[in-house]
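Tokens for chain A. Residues wanted.
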């Protein structure tokens, strides 16, 4: 690489000094400066372009608060509730929520140090193992592509709430939703941010309203005047799922962990968005810290309220002739309490949530693909960005996989949604495990290269123990998520058991095949902490100056705190 004195637009790495990056940022702009810092020279940066930091603070905060409140919380939780009972669901969501929070603390420290588009594959490749970066990058991309299908499939289920006789083919609705999602992603990241801000606002207001309505129903303030108390806990707090006695109740609890993992899926997308966020060193830590409150109020409190408002034995939760919001425990609770209009409102919000989640997963999937390309583990043409900073090849290729949703036209859309859900949940757990391993390598690298963690903008507590504990928890979920077919050995395995086994463990096979492929192909060793690349891209970010926002009155002070 040329000497910086001879070529001021050639970037050198290896320490925290800027090596001319400040001049590039000042003369060519922040995007070119960041790209030159990552790619090593300004010619490559200008050839491919780079993403723009177009996500404002309010976009990031609302993505963190409500970006992944989707069909899992509104719709999918009903299945877990029917199988396991109210206390098992509450414990399952609380335990998984604690693990997710620990993982997010690890990810928050890395993404505040170096906020990159895609982020996770780069962190794993830089700090742990290039083969791990390859495996998790492609795993994340495939996970987002499949989740995109799952959310669109869920939207098709939800629309049938109104179109009960299916006078309009579901393929029409699938096509409309796909077009909307692609349009929100292909033009500029700020459009995606505005859409998510609006979607998240609707979802947050709705879930707060449902929580309030649930408390009213619980305490007897609904039209039926029935004060439920803990009646439904007494009739079956922890239901037997597979087996009897304590074994059956434990299997019910364990089944909720997988369901909760699906509901929490995508919680890490705030770190993916960090690479396109304004003032990331301020906005990302704020968003990461709010993950705790999101888990506590929306998921843990939500699962508690559902458990005291409706019986887990209510036949509407599992009725085959019902669809969309009709099977949502929130809607069933309101309908049983004599609140008739709410089901239509909730169904509209569930439809909005499914569209929002699909929008978010197309965005994150395209950025994961972009991140893999930055690692040199995907074709270079994927790095090409539009003038507005959108990696259009990555968006287009990810969007193509949404066409798999049309599979739901040949079978029950609800069955396809559940099949997609099982596939995605384990891919999600592999992502979280990889984040923990990446952080462990990052923690060692900071120590080996003399970086004092007390100087970091965001420092996660109890490290690296937090990362290790959460890593082993998600490993257990991966290993034992497919226990159901092994308990049904009487008469041998039929098609249902084979399908359950396949959806539970095919992702394990895919992940390790990806890892082995890159390890054998490149034969790259594990990253040594002393030589881990914790600096590339940091100098350009350090050189950027963001204006300080000073509130002028109480309203602005509250808004700046919220957003």
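Reply:
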């Amino acid at each position: 690489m040329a000497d910086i004195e001879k070529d001021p637009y050639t970037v050198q790495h290896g320490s925290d000094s800027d090596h001319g990056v400040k001049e590039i940022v000042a003369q060519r702009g922040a995007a070119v400066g960041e790209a030159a810092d990552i790619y090593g020279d300004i010619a490559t940066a200008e050839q491919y372009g780079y993403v723009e930091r177009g996500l404002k603070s309010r976009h990031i905060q609302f993505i963190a608060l409500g970006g992944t409140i989707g069909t899992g919380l509104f719709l999918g939780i009903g299945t877990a509730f029917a199988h396991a009972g109210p206390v098992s669901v509450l414990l399952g969501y609380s335990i998984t929520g604690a693990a997710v929070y620990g993982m997010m603390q690890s990810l928050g420290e890395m993404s505040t140090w170096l906020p990159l588009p895609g982020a996770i594959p780069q962190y794993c490749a830089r700090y742990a193992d290039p083969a791990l970066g390859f495996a998790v990058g492609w795993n994340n991309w495939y996970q987002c592509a499949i989740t995109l299908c799952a959310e669109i499939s869920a939207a098709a289920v939800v629309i049938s709430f109104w179109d009960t006789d299916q006078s309009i083919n579901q393929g029409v609705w699938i096509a409309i939703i796909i077009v909307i999602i692609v349009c929100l992603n292909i033009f500029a990241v700020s459009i995606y941010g505005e859409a998510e801000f609006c979607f998240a606002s609707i979802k947050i207001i709705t879930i707060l309203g449902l929580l309030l309505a649930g408390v009213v129903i619980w305490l007897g303030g609904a039209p039926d005047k029935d004060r439920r108390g803990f009646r439904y806990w007494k009739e079956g707090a922890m239901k037997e799922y597979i087996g009897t006695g304590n074994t059956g109740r434990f299997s019910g609890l364990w089944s909720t962990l997988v369901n909760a993992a699906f509901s929490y899926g995508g919680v890490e997308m705030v770190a993916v968005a960090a690479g396109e966020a304004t003032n990331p060193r301020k906005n990302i830590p704020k968003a990461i810290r709010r993950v705790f409150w999101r888990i506590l109020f929306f998921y843990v409190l939500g699962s508690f309220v559902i458990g005291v408002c409706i019986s887990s034995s209510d036949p509407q939760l599992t009725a085959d002739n019902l669809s969309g919001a009709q099977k949502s425990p929130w809607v069933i609770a309101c309908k049983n309490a004599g609140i008739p209009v709410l089901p239509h409102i909730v169904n509209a919000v569930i439809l909005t949530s499914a569209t929002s989640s699909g929008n978010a997963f197309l965005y994150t999937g395209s950025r994961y693909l972009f991140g893999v390309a930055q690692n040199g583990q995907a074709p270079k043409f994927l790095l090409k960005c539009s003038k507005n900073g959108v990696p259009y090849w990555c968006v287009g290729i990810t969007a193509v996989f949404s066409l798999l949703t049309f599979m739901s036209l040949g079978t029950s859309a609800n069955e396809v949604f559940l099949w997609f859900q099982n596939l995605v949940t384990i891919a999600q757990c592999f992502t979280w495990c990889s984040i923990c391993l990446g952080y462990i390598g990052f923690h060692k690298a900071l120590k080996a290269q003399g970086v004092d963690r007390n100087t970091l903008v965001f420092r996660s507590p109890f490290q690296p123990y937090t990362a290790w504990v959460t890593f082993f928890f998600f490993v257990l979920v991966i290993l034992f998520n497919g226990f159901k077919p092994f308990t049904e050995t009487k008469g041998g395995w039929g098609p249902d058991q084979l399908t359950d086994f396949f959806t539970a463990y095919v992702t394990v096979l895919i992940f390790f095949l990806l890892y082995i492929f890159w390890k054998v192909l490149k034969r790259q060793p594990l990253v040594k902490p002393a030589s881990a690349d914790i600096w590339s891209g940091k100098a350009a970010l350090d050189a950027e100056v963001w204006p300080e926002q000073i509130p002028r009155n109480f309203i602005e002070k509250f808004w700046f705190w919220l957003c």
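The radius of gyration is 24 Å. Residues 1-17 have pLDDT under 50 and may be disordered.
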